[in-house]
Known about the structure:
Layout: E1 4-6, E2 9-10, E3 25-29, E4 42-43, E5 49-50, E6 54-55, E7 61-62, E8 65-67, E9 71-76, E10 79-84, H1 86-112, E11 115-120, E12 125-130, E13 135-140, H2 165-176, H3 178-186, H4 190-200, E14 214-215, E15 223-228, E16 234-239, E17 244-246, E18 250-251, H5 258-264, E19 265-270, E20 276-281, E21 286-288, E22 291-293, E23 301-308, H6 310-313, E24 316-317, E25 329-332, E26 337-339, E27 344-345, H7 347-357, E28 364-369, E29 379-380, E30 390-391, H8 408-423, E31 428-435, H9 454-472, E32 480-483, H10 487-491, H11 494-508, H12 510-513, E33 517-520, H13 537-556, E34 567-574, E35 577-583, E36 591-598, E37 604-605, E38 615-619, E39 626-633, E40 645-646
Parallel strand pairs: 23-28, 23-31, 25-28, 29-30, 31-32, 32-33
Antiparallel strand pairs: 1-8, 2-7, 3-6, 3-9, 4-5, 9-10, 11-12, 12-13, 14-15, 15-16, 16-17, 17-18, 19-20, 20-21, 21-22, 24-27, 25-26, 34-35, 35-38, 36-37, 36-39, 39-40
Amino acid sequence: MTDYFYDMDLVVDPLNPSNVVANGLVSIYDPADTAGVTLLALKDPSGLPLPNPLPSNANGFLPPRIATVPQTMWKSGGFTGYFNSYKGLRDESVAAVTAAQSAANDASAAAAQVVTTATVDGAGALVLTKASGATVNAGNVKGQKGDKGDKGDKGLDGSNVLPTETAVQEAVERAVGPAAAAAVANNPSVVSNAAALAQQSAGLLKATDAGVVQNRPLSQDNYLSAELSPSGKLLRGTRKDATVEIPGGTRVAGALTTSELQDQYIHAVLTPSRKVLYGIRKSGQFEVGGSLIGPTAPDPYDVIIVAGQSNATQIETLPVPPQDADSRIFKWSGASIVPVSNTATYLGSSFARSYLQNSPPGRRVLLVDAAVGSTGFTSTSLASPPTGYHTAAGGTWDRTLTSDPINLYSQMISKTQAALAAAGAGARLVAMLWVQGEEDTQVGSYLYNNPSGVQAAYAAKLDDLISTARTDLAVSTLPVLVGSMTPQFILEFATGSTLREKVHFAHMDTPRRTPSTAFIYGPEDMEHYNDTIHFSAQAYKVRGPMFVEALYRAKENVATANPLPPLNLRGTRSGDTVTVKWDAPPSRATAFTIEYSISGGAWTALSLVVPIALSATFTATAGQPVRLRGKTTNEVGTSHYTREVAI
């Protein structure tokens, strides 16, 4: 049974090239098996069995393989297509053309032997002229001379002066052989048929044509086998030292260790000295004789840190998986880069999906999950915590508490550096997501024991973490996106509401204190169904795009940015209480000024809990008309007012 070699094939919907089957399972069938009943037996290039279905890589390519048919049908999901073994088809074509050429040559040779004319020379010899122009003396065909006549009367030459048909046939058999004679006698059209066959095959690929690989032995001292071009140039050869040589004299690199193979290759065929004959790299490229062929290098990674506590790391499963699942999302496992499940929803995956949807093509996302539940600046894994700290198994985010063996800041930096190294060329660190705070409102923490200093103390720790991380990771303007705790957690429990609000105010004020940061509040009323400290799975899906929008704001939060007025200024009324809210603009803000006017009176500025707060309340008698306006101040100056809003 013939083996047909298949190169790396891209699994793509033939009706829509944008639908690539990446990281999927692809079933391979004989094309005659249109219903896809019996899977074909497959082998790798070394002859070892391969599974069927075959897994495609992250770029949608199948590995090189061998099948028993020159064309295969593939099915994956709702897609169907066909692959061709171009080497197999080429080999069959060359063999067919060679056979046709041989037949044409045989026919031409036979035609050239056909006798076209026959004459008798003066000596009585039968002279045959072939189609090729050659002549053959078939021997004397005259009969014996008769008796002489009387004196003066010349005797007769005999009764067989001219060759008879039988004499010619016998002469032809003697001269060109019985087969050729029979062909002439029984099928005179062989000449025209042979000529027509030669003409038809003249334009076909021949084994001797330029570019057709031929196997020819090289020096037996150097090579086990070699493939040469018709002009004798080396195309590929296996030397006696088991290395492979390709054009230009390139040789296979030195022997690889097992760890190097595991780090670099999905599949590899080695020489006895552990040099790669050919293999599939994890990049999706095919290596032959030390050269890389196949798809171009994969898209580089945008690396994103997800840090904090449980609202940054908690994974939920939605009843209906996200419709915007993306196979370009990966995470750092601590040892390698692995795909992120499309069914799991958490802040990192939701952010990554929205980020890719709003980014130019040609990039992938690599998440570095550094968050640990129930941890904070005041937690520690130490059994005997220092004053102001409380014990929590997850460790501490206080980078200065170096006595804690679980220093989460140090782990975050190490993980990120390892992920960037593994991501390779073109990788870049684009953002850090920080969602934390709940643990630092625990009884026993130094923040809890000093309510009046909570906001400043927490802000100092967070600012130090951001500044030091930017230095340690060598990205001085690394955007840091600070997410709020759940709105319900901030407000509930009277005994702790002030403390929680102070941590919340420290979060909210971060963009004023630290450039290249942004704050994300909420979403409101989307807490987990059975607790209020965590966001729900639905909230994570909503929150991801909110963080992506904040990334744009963080990039614009620089001292040279012209101020823009607050966005989406709005108000609601409940009795005599008016609640005003607004959104941060994509520019730097050191203060918002929000003013109100009642019944057309003077404008009064609202008192804000922090200079860049996003909400405030005031009192106005029900029924009195109220108007709102606002402006933004930063190092450059003060923006114009917003349009006035009536409520």
